Amino acid sequence: MTGVGGLARCQYVFVPDVADFLRAPVAALMFVLANRAGLGANDLANPATASVLASTAFDELNPWSGSDDRPAARRARALELVKPLRPFVDTVINDSRNAWWSAPGSRSRQLHLTDDDRVDPMRVGTPTGPVTGWEIYAQKPEHRVETSTELPVAPGETVISGAHAGLAYGPGDWFPDYPVKQTRLRVSDDARVYEINRPEDWHGLVMRYGDPDSYRGASEQLLDAAGVDHGLAPTWSAVAADWDGVHLTLAGMLTSIYVPVGAAGTTTTLWAWEFERTLWLKPVFTAATLMPLADLPQGCSLKFPTRRRVSL
What we know:
Elements: E1 3-4, E2 7-8, H1 18-22, H2 25-36, H3 41-44, H4 47-61, H5 71-81, H6 86-93, E3 110-114, H7 133-138, E4 145-149, H8 162-169, E5 180-187, E6 193-196, H9 199-209, H10 220-226, H11 236-242, E7 245-248, H12 250-256, E8 261-263, E9 266-268, E10 277-280, E11 285-294
Parallel strand pairs: 6-7
Antiparallel strand pairs: 1-2, 3-4, 3-5, 4-10, 5-11, 7-10, 8-9
């Protein structure tokens, strides 16, 4: 295990812990929604189904999704509702078919989506300078290239990555003009990718690369709407000195969003990453293959309703 910038390059071997999922609102609500829909472990072993459920749960808890009640109350309710489902959660997260939830993204099947023909994913701009106020709030660099891992799904499935599930079933803040351009990217074998599988991983990234003097306090709008203090964020130019990308796994998305971690006098809460994705900080792609243009994904094998508010 090689150290990079004070962090281990391969970090650690992630072992699913049911407690991590039961304390996390998005994970909790995903399992509640699955149970209400009559879905079992075999259904959640379908990558498209799991991705759609995750994006739907994120949308339900998103403070900007138009819920009539307070997001904090919805998060608390989800954590209560999942308690009787502990055996179900334990079975699913330890199912070997779901090992991809915490796996590093495939280096040969990274998907980039855009509706802007001027965007060339092969030209990744490396962050420079100090972190900005927007980057602290949004928890990502302003100029970036993001990809999502292509899922092993059945032919004809339109939800072929977490990004596709996010577009069709999640909130997000990107409303593209369809069809969108899809590019399959190959990542260099030497690329250094920091993995986020638990909220402590995000906190560790912030503690290593964040500048405490850059933090001016929580976003009043986010704090008032959702009761969330996002906390400090990494200085992305500093991250780029040691890492080429930061990957939020599906397990990381489920267990980290809205879960505060406090240590060494600093509390962080990841909240703004909506689906499995890798944020690329340097040009590490070795090949690009254009795929057919994509329309809005119309449904997966789950046929889960889009953007319909769930009663908790």
